[in-house]
Amino acid sequence: MDxxxxxxxxxxxxxxxxxxxxxxxxxxxxxxxxxxxxxxxxDHRISGVPVxxxxxxxxxxxxxxxxxxxxAGGEDCAIAAEMTKKPECLYADQPLVxxxxxxxxxxxxxxxxxxxxTGKLAGILTKGKLMEGVLRKLESEIEEExxxxxxxxxxxxxxxxxxxxxxxxxxxxxxxxxxxxxASTGMKRNLKRLGIHPDIIHRLAIASYEAEMNLVIYTDGGxxxxxxxxxxxxLRVKDNGPGIEDIEKAMQTGYSTAAxxxxxxxxxxxxxxxxxxxxxxxxxxxxxxxxxxxxxIRMFTGPQHKPDGGA
Amino acid sequence: MKLAELVEKLxxxxxxxxxxxxxxxxxxxxxxxxxxxMARANEGDVWITLQTHQNIVAVAVMKSLAGIILVxxxxxxEAAVDKATAEAIPIMVSxxxxxxxxxxxxxxGIKGS
Lengths: 311, 113
Known about the structure:
The structure holds 2 protein chains of 2 kinds.
Chain A: H1 3-14, H2 17-20, H3 34-44, E1 48-53, E2 56-62, H4 63-71, E3 84-85, E4 90-91, H5 96-106, E5 110-114, E6 121-126, H6 127-158, E7 166-173, H7 182-193, H8 198-218, E8 221-228, E9 232-239, H9 247-250, H10 260-264, H11 272-279, E10 282-288, E11 292-300
Parallel strand pairs in A: 4-5
Antiparallel strand pairs in A: 1-2, 2-3, 5-6, 7-8, 8-9, 9-11, 10-11
Helix pairs in contact in A: 1-6, 7-8, 8-11
Chain B: H1 3-9, E1 13-16, E2 27-30, H2 34-40, E3 46-49, H3 55-62, E4 67-70, H4 78-87, E5 91-93, H5 98-107, E6 111-112
Protein backbone atom coordinates (compact mmCIF):
# COMPACT_ATOMS: atom_id res chain seq x y z
CA MET A 1 0.00 0.00 0.00
CA ASP A 2 1.13 3.52 -0.64
CA UNK A 3 2.92 4.60 2.48
CA UNK A 4 1.43 8.08 2.62
CA UNK A 5 -2.04 6.70 2.35
CA UNK A 6 -1.36 4.25 5.14
CA UNK A 7 0.04 7.11 7.19
CA UNK A 8 -3.12 9.16 6.69
CA UNK A 9 -5.24 6.27 7.84
CA UNK A 10 -3.07 5.83 10.87
CA UNK A 11 -3.53 9.50 11.65
CA UNK A 12 -7.30 9.20 11.52
CA UNK A 13 -7.08 6.74 14.36
CA UNK A 14 -4.44 8.70 16.24
CA UNK A 15 -5.91 12.18 16.04
CA UNK A 16 -8.72 12.99 18.42
CA UNK A 17 -11.61 15.25 17.55
CA UNK A 18 -10.46 17.64 20.29
CA UNK A 19 -7.26 18.30 18.35
CA UNK A 20 -8.93 19.51 15.18
CA UNK A 21 -12.32 20.93 16.18
CA UNK A 22 -13.12 24.61 16.24
CA UNK A 23 -12.94 25.84 19.82
CA UNK A 24 -13.76 29.53 19.49
CA UNK A 25 -17.49 29.30 19.23
CA UNK A 26 -20.25 31.65 18.40
CA UNK A 27 -23.23 30.30 20.24
CA UNK A 28 -26.86 31.31 20.11
CA UNK A 29 -29.63 31.31 22.59
CA UNK A 30 -32.93 29.84 21.34
CA UNK A 31 -34.73 33.17 21.75
CA UNK A 32 -32.48 35.02 19.32
CA UNK A 33 -33.97 35.62 15.90
CA UNK A 34 -33.31 34.19 12.47
CA UNK A 35 -32.36 37.61 11.12
CA UNK A 36 -29.68 37.89 13.78
CA UNK A 37 -28.45 34.47 12.73
CA UNK A 38 -28.27 35.61 9.11
CA UNK A 39 -26.07 38.56 10.08
CA UNK A 40 -23.73 36.50 12.21
CA UNK A 41 -23.25 33.73 9.66
CA UNK A 42 -22.51 36.37 7.05
CA ASP A 43 -20.17 38.46 9.19
CA HIS A 44 -18.18 35.52 10.54
CA ARG A 45 -18.32 33.44 7.38
CA ILE A 46 -19.41 30.38 9.26
CA SER A 47 -21.97 27.80 8.26
CA GLY A 48 -23.62 26.84 11.51
CA VAL A 49 -23.76 27.52 15.24
CA PRO A 50 -24.77 25.55 18.31
CA VAL A 51 -27.76 26.79 20.28
CA UNK A 52 -27.36 26.85 24.04
CA UNK A 53 -29.83 27.32 26.81
CA UNK A 54 -27.65 28.30 29.72
CA UNK A 55 -24.84 25.80 29.32
CA UNK A 56 -26.97 23.09 27.86
CA UNK A 57 -26.87 22.30 24.19
CA UNK A 58 -30.45 22.34 22.88
CA UNK A 59 -29.94 22.52 19.14
CA UNK A 60 -27.86 23.45 16.15
CA UNK A 61 -28.76 25.91 13.46
CA UNK A 62 -27.04 26.05 10.09
CA UNK A 63 -26.97 27.84 6.80
CA UNK A 64 -29.27 25.13 5.41
CA UNK A 65 -31.87 26.06 8.03
CA UNK A 66 -31.42 29.68 7.10
CA UNK A 67 -31.99 29.01 3.39
CA UNK A 68 -35.06 26.95 4.13
CA UNK A 69 -36.39 29.77 6.31
CA UNK A 70 -35.65 32.38 3.61
CA UNK A 71 -37.31 30.43 0.84
CA ALA A 72 -40.35 29.96 3.04
CA GLY A 73 -40.75 33.73 3.21
CA GLY A 74 -38.19 34.71 5.80
CA GLU A 75 -40.60 35.93 8.38
CA ASP A 76 -38.57 36.65 11.46
CA CYS A 77 -38.92 34.25 14.34
CA ALA A 78 -36.95 32.74 17.18
CA ILE A 79 -34.19 30.31 16.24
CA ALA A 80 -35.84 27.66 18.37
CA ALA A 81 -38.48 27.25 15.67
CA GLU A 82 -36.03 26.54 12.85
CA MET A 83 -33.10 24.80 14.52
CA THR A 84 -32.41 21.09 14.60
CA LYS A 85 -33.35 20.08 18.11
CA LYS A 86 -31.29 17.66 20.20
CA PRO A 87 -28.64 17.34 17.52
CA GLU A 88 -26.41 14.34 17.26
CA CYS A 89 -23.08 14.97 18.92
CA LEU A 90 -19.57 13.63 18.93
CA TYR A 91 -17.27 13.34 21.90
CA ALA A 92 -14.01 15.26 22.04
CA ASP A 93 -11.98 12.14 22.87
CA GLN A 94 -13.19 10.14 19.88
CA PRO A 95 -10.78 9.47 17.02
CA LEU A 96 -11.31 11.22 13.71
CA VAL A 97 -12.09 7.98 11.97
CA UNK A 98 -15.28 7.82 14.00
CA UNK A 99 -16.24 11.35 12.98
CA UNK A 100 -15.70 10.54 9.31
CA UNK A 101 -18.00 7.58 9.58
CA UNK A 102 -20.66 9.75 11.17
CA UNK A 103 -20.33 12.45 8.51
CA UNK A 104 -20.76 9.77 5.84
CA UNK A 105 -23.74 8.08 7.46
CA UNK A 106 -25.62 11.21 8.42
CA UNK A 107 -24.87 13.61 5.61
CA UNK A 108 -24.61 16.38 8.21
CA UNK A 109 -22.19 19.23 7.63
CA UNK A 110 -21.20 19.68 11.28
CA UNK A 111 -21.41 18.09 14.68
CA UNK A 112 -21.35 19.71 18.09
CA UNK A 113 -18.56 18.19 20.14
CA UNK A 114 -19.13 17.36 23.80
CA UNK A 115 -16.53 16.97 26.52
CA UNK A 116 -17.24 13.56 27.98
CA UNK A 117 -16.17 14.47 31.49
CA THR A 118 -18.28 17.60 31.89
CA GLY A 119 -21.02 16.86 29.41
CA LYS A 120 -20.66 20.39 28.12
CA LEU A 121 -20.17 21.71 24.62
CA ALA A 122 -16.46 21.87 23.84
CA GLY A 123 -16.40 22.77 20.17
CA ILE A 124 -17.80 22.12 16.75
CA LEU A 125 -16.47 19.86 14.04
CA THR A 126 -16.97 20.50 10.35
CA LYS A 127 -15.57 18.52 7.44
CA GLY A 128 -13.37 21.50 6.66
CA LYS A 129 -11.88 21.56 10.16
CA LEU A 130 -11.36 17.82 10.02
CA MET A 131 -9.52 18.06 6.74
CA GLU A 132 -7.47 21.00 7.92
CA GLY A 133 -6.42 19.15 11.07
CA VAL A 134 -5.35 16.07 9.18
CA LEU A 135 -3.40 18.06 6.64
CA ARG A 136 -1.65 20.08 9.30
CA LYS A 137 -0.66 16.98 11.18
CA LEU A 138 0.40 15.21 8.01
CA GLU A 139 2.55 18.10 6.99
CA SER A 140 4.55 18.11 10.19
CA GLU A 141 4.64 14.37 10.60
CA ILE A 142 5.60 13.59 7.06
CA GLU A 143 8.53 15.87 7.26
CA GLU A 144 10.08 14.37 10.37
CA GLU A 145 8.64 10.96 10.79
CA UNK A 146 8.46 9.91 7.19
CA UNK A 147 11.89 11.23 6.41
CA UNK A 148 13.24 9.52 9.45
CA UNK A 149 11.54 6.20 9.41
CA UNK A 150 10.48 5.56 5.89
CA UNK A 151 13.49 6.63 3.91
CA UNK A 152 16.07 5.03 6.13
CA UNK A 153 14.30 1.80 6.68
CA UNK A 154 13.41 1.73 3.01
CA UNK A 155 17.01 1.62 1.93
CA UNK A 156 17.90 -1.14 4.31
CA UNK A 157 14.69 -3.04 3.67
CA UNK A 158 14.95 -3.01 -0.08
CA UNK A 159 18.46 -4.33 -0.11
CA UNK A 160 18.91 -7.89 1.02
CA UNK A 161 22.12 -9.15 2.49
CA UNK A 162 23.35 -10.80 5.63
CA UNK A 163 25.14 -7.62 6.59
CA UNK A 164 24.20 -4.20 5.31
CA UNK A 165 25.93 -0.90 5.68
CA UNK A 166 26.36 2.37 3.88
CA UNK A 167 29.98 3.43 3.75
CA UNK A 168 30.90 7.06 3.15
CA UNK A 169 34.35 8.57 3.37
CA UNK A 170 35.72 12.07 3.38
CA UNK A 171 39.31 13.17 2.87
CA UNK A 172 40.06 16.03 5.22
CA UNK A 173 43.08 18.13 4.31
CA UNK A 174 45.21 19.41 7.18
CA UNK A 175 45.61 23.12 7.97
CA UNK A 176 42.91 23.99 5.46
CA UNK A 177 40.66 26.18 7.56
CA UNK A 178 38.67 27.23 4.52
CA UNK A 179 37.24 23.78 3.98
CA UNK A 180 37.23 22.77 7.60
CA UNK A 181 33.86 21.49 8.73
CA UNK A 182 32.58 20.69 5.26
CA ALA A 183 32.78 16.93 5.75
CA SER A 184 30.68 17.13 8.91
CA THR A 185 28.22 19.59 7.42
CA GLY A 186 27.76 17.34 4.40
CA MET A 187 27.44 14.30 6.60
CA LYS A 188 24.78 15.92 8.73
CA ARG A 189 22.70 16.46 5.61
CA ASN A 190 23.25 12.85 4.53
CA LEU A 191 22.19 11.48 7.88
CA LYS A 192 19.02 13.55 7.75
CA ARG A 193 18.23 12.15 4.35
CA LEU A 194 18.95 8.65 5.57
CA GLY A 195 16.37 9.21 8.26
CA ILE A 196 18.59 8.85 11.30
CA HIS A 197 16.94 10.00 14.53
CA PRO A 198 17.44 13.78 15.09
CA ASP A 199 18.95 13.25 18.53
CA ILE A 200 21.61 10.96 17.11
CA ILE A 201 22.31 13.33 14.24
CA HIS A 202 22.70 16.14 16.73
CA ARG A 203 25.23 14.30 18.85
CA LEU A 204 27.09 12.83 15.91
CA ALA A 205 27.29 16.25 14.28
CA ILE A 206 29.13 17.62 17.29
CA ALA A 207 31.46 14.65 17.59
CA SER A 208 32.16 14.59 13.88
CA TYR A 209 32.84 18.31 13.70
CA GLU A 210 35.27 18.19 16.60
CA ALA A 211 37.07 15.21 15.09
CA GLU A 212 37.27 16.95 11.75
CA MET A 213 38.66 20.10 13.36
CA ASN A 214 41.30 18.01 15.11
CA LEU A 215 42.44 16.70 11.73
CA VAL A 216 42.57 20.23 10.37
CA ILE A 217 44.28 21.80 13.34
CA TYR A 218 46.82 19.20 14.36
CA THR A 219 47.54 16.88 11.42
CA ASP A 220 48.48 16.97 7.78
CA GLY A 221 45.10 15.57 6.99
CA GLY A 222 43.24 12.34 7.40
CA UNK A 223 40.21 10.31 6.50
CA UNK A 224 36.77 10.18 8.04
CA UNK A 225 34.87 6.97 7.37
CA UNK A 226 31.20 6.67 8.23
CA UNK A 227 29.63 3.23 8.39
CA UNK A 228 25.86 3.38 8.65
CA UNK A 229 24.04 0.17 9.36
CA UNK A 230 20.57 -0.47 10.74
CA UNK A 231 22.12 -0.86 14.20
CA UNK A 232 24.58 1.98 14.43
CA UNK A 233 26.51 4.80 12.89
CA UNK A 234 30.20 4.11 13.24
CA LEU A 235 32.74 6.83 12.52
CA ARG A 236 36.44 6.13 12.17
CA VAL A 237 38.82 9.07 11.90
CA LYS A 238 42.36 8.23 10.86
CA ASP A 239 45.44 10.36 10.43
CA ASN A 240 49.18 9.86 10.01
CA GLY A 241 50.47 11.96 12.80
CA PRO A 242 51.75 13.60 14.82
CA GLY A 243 49.87 11.45 17.37
CA ILE A 244 48.85 12.34 20.90
CA GLU A 245 51.52 12.20 23.62
CA ASP A 246 49.20 11.86 26.56
CA ILE A 247 45.64 10.80 25.75
CA GLU A 248 44.45 11.14 29.32
CA LYS A 249 45.57 14.76 29.42
CA ALA A 250 44.15 15.42 25.96
CA MET A 251 40.77 14.22 27.15
CA GLN A 252 40.69 16.84 29.90
CA THR A 253 38.56 19.86 29.18
CA GLY A 254 40.75 22.89 28.63
CA TYR A 255 43.98 21.04 27.86
CA SER A 256 45.23 22.12 24.45
CA THR A 257 48.40 21.99 22.40
CA ALA A 258 47.02 24.22 19.66
CA ALA A 259 49.19 26.98 18.24
CA UNK A 260 48.40 30.52 19.22
CA UNK A 261 47.13 31.54 15.77
CA UNK A 262 44.74 28.59 15.81
CA UNK A 263 43.31 29.73 19.13
CA UNK A 264 42.84 33.21 17.73
CA UNK A 265 40.41 31.67 15.25
CA UNK A 266 38.39 30.27 18.12
CA UNK A 267 39.70 26.72 17.79
CA UNK A 268 41.93 24.71 20.05
CA UNK A 269 40.01 25.44 23.23
CA UNK A 270 40.91 22.06 24.62
CA UNK A 271 37.33 20.89 24.51
CA UNK A 272 37.31 18.76 21.37
CA UNK A 273 37.94 15.28 22.68
CA UNK A 274 35.84 15.77 25.77
CA UNK A 275 32.99 17.10 23.60
CA UNK A 276 33.28 13.97 21.48
CA UNK A 277 33.30 11.76 24.52
CA UNK A 278 30.17 13.41 25.85
CA UNK A 279 28.28 12.99 22.60
CA UNK A 280 29.31 9.49 21.59
CA UNK A 281 27.63 6.33 22.78
CA UNK A 282 31.07 4.80 22.62
CA UNK A 283 34.45 6.31 21.93
CA UNK A 284 37.87 4.74 21.52
CA UNK A 285 41.12 6.43 20.75
CA UNK A 286 44.42 4.86 19.72
CA UNK A 287 47.43 7.00 19.19
CA UNK A 288 51.13 6.54 18.68
CA UNK A 289 53.29 9.65 18.70
CA UNK A 290 55.02 10.05 15.36
CA UNK A 291 52.76 7.49 13.71
CA UNK A 292 49.17 8.68 13.95
CA UNK A 293 45.83 8.55 15.67
CA UNK A 294 42.68 6.55 15.10
CA UNK A 295 39.48 7.68 16.74
CA UNK A 296 36.39 5.49 16.74
CA ILE A 297 32.95 6.78 17.58
CA ARG A 298 29.81 4.73 17.77
CA MET A 299 26.19 5.88 17.88
CA PHE A 300 23.67 3.17 18.44
CA THR A 301 20.58 3.58 16.33
CA GLY A 302 18.93 0.25 17.07
CA PRO A 303 16.38 -0.28 19.83
CA GLN A 304 19.12 -0.09 22.49
CA HIS A 305 20.09 3.50 21.68
CA LYS A 306 19.93 5.91 24.54
CA PRO A 307 17.79 8.86 23.52
CA ASP A 308 19.21 11.35 25.99
CA GLY A 309 22.78 10.58 25.05
CA GLY A 310 25.99 11.35 26.80
CA ALA A 311 28.63 8.97 28.02
CA MET B 1 10.42 36.84 19.34
CA LYS B 2 11.08 36.58 15.63
CA LEU B 3 14.65 37.05 14.51
CA ALA B 4 13.37 39.74 12.16
CA GLU B 5 12.11 41.73 15.17
CA LEU B 6 15.51 41.48 16.84
CA VAL B 7 17.10 42.82 13.69
CA GLU B 8 14.76 45.79 13.78
CA LYS B 9 14.96 46.51 17.50
CA LEU B 10 18.73 46.14 17.78
CA UNK B 11 19.34 47.85 14.45
CA UNK B 12 21.37 44.95 13.14
CA UNK B 13 22.76 44.94 9.62
CA UNK B 14 21.81 41.73 7.88
CA UNK B 15 24.66 40.44 5.76
CA UNK B 16 23.30 37.03 4.80
CA UNK B 17 20.29 34.78 5.24
CA UNK B 18 17.64 37.50 4.99
CA UNK B 19 15.23 34.77 3.89
CA UNK B 20 15.68 32.94 7.20
CA UNK B 21 14.67 35.71 9.61
CA UNK B 22 11.14 34.47 10.16
CA UNK B 23 12.08 32.15 13.02
CA UNK B 24 11.29 32.39 16.70
CA UNK B 25 14.23 33.05 18.95
CA UNK B 26 13.95 32.59 22.70
CA UNK B 27 17.52 31.88 23.74
CA UNK B 28 21.02 32.89 22.93
CA UNK B 29 24.65 32.00 23.51
CA UNK B 30 27.72 34.22 23.52
CA UNK B 31 31.18 32.76 22.99
CA UNK B 32 34.19 33.06 20.74
CA UNK B 33 35.41 29.51 21.21
CA UNK B 34 33.87 27.27 18.58
CA UNK B 35 34.13 24.11 20.64
CA UNK B 36 32.41 25.87 23.48
CA UNK B 37 29.54 26.77 21.19
CA MET B 38 29.46 23.22 19.86
CA ALA B 39 29.27 21.95 23.42
CA ARG B 40 26.86 24.38 25.00
CA ALA B 41 24.70 26.26 22.55
CA ASN B 42 21.26 24.84 21.88
CA GLU B 43 19.33 24.39 18.69
CA GLY B 44 17.58 27.61 17.71
CA ASP B 45 19.86 29.88 19.74
CA VAL B 46 21.09 33.15 18.39
CA TRP B 47 24.89 33.19 18.68
CA ILE B 48 26.87 36.29 19.58
CA THR B 49 30.55 36.23 18.62
CA LEU B 50 33.43 38.27 17.28
CA GLN B 51 34.74 35.45 15.10
CA THR B 52 34.28 36.27 11.43
CA HIS B 53 35.77 33.42 9.45
CA GLN B 54 33.68 30.85 7.65
CA ASN B 55 33.81 28.21 10.32
CA ILE B 56 31.19 30.10 12.28
CA VAL B 57 28.79 29.08 9.53
CA ALA B 58 29.73 25.42 9.87
CA VAL B 59 29.14 25.62 13.61
CA ALA B 60 25.78 27.32 13.08
CA VAL B 61 24.74 24.65 10.60
CA MET B 62 25.94 21.78 12.79
CA LYS B 63 24.10 23.14 15.81
CA SER B 64 21.05 24.34 13.86
CA LEU B 65 21.40 27.83 15.32
CA ALA B 66 18.93 30.54 14.35
CA GLY B 67 21.63 32.99 13.35
CA ILE B 68 24.92 34.68 14.15
CA ILE B 69 25.37 38.23 15.40
CA LEU B 70 28.85 39.68 14.98
CA VAL B 71 29.78 42.33 17.53
CA UNK B 72 31.98 45.44 17.49
CA UNK B 73 30.96 46.11 13.91
CA UNK B 74 33.05 43.20 12.68
CA UNK B 75 32.26 42.07 9.16
CA UNK B 76 32.07 38.42 8.09
CA UNK B 77 34.91 37.31 5.83
CA GLU B 78 34.01 36.88 2.18
CA ALA B 79 34.16 33.08 2.38
CA ALA B 80 31.86 33.19 5.40
CA VAL B 81 29.38 35.28 3.44
CA ASP B 82 29.43 32.79 0.57
CA LYS B 83 28.95 29.83 2.83
CA ALA B 84 26.23 31.46 4.91
CA THR B 85 24.39 32.48 1.76
CA ALA B 86 24.53 28.91 0.48
CA GLU B 87 23.29 27.52 3.79
CA ALA B 88 20.72 30.32 4.35
CA ILE B 89 22.24 31.12 7.74
CA PRO B 90 21.60 34.70 8.89
CA ILE B 91 24.74 36.67 9.76
CA MET B 92 23.97 40.04 11.33
CA VAL B 93 26.33 42.80 12.38
CA SER B 94 26.03 45.02 15.44
CA UNK B 95 28.17 47.99 16.37
CA UNK B 96 27.80 47.11 20.04
CA UNK B 97 30.20 45.09 22.15
CA UNK B 98 29.25 41.60 23.28
CA UNK B 99 28.44 42.88 26.76
CA UNK B 100 26.16 45.65 25.57
CA UNK B 101 24.47 43.53 22.95
CA UNK B 102 23.74 40.67 25.32
CA UNK B 103 22.35 43.21 27.79
CA UNK B 104 19.94 44.48 25.18
CA UNK B 105 18.98 40.95 24.17
CA UNK B 106 18.17 40.21 27.79
CA UNK B 107 15.97 43.29 27.98
CA UNK B 108 14.10 42.00 24.94
CA GLY B 109 13.47 38.71 26.71
CA ILE B 110 16.14 36.59 25.03
CA LYS B 111 17.71 34.51 27.77
CA GLY B 112 20.63 32.18 28.18
CA SER B 113 20.08 28.55 27.32
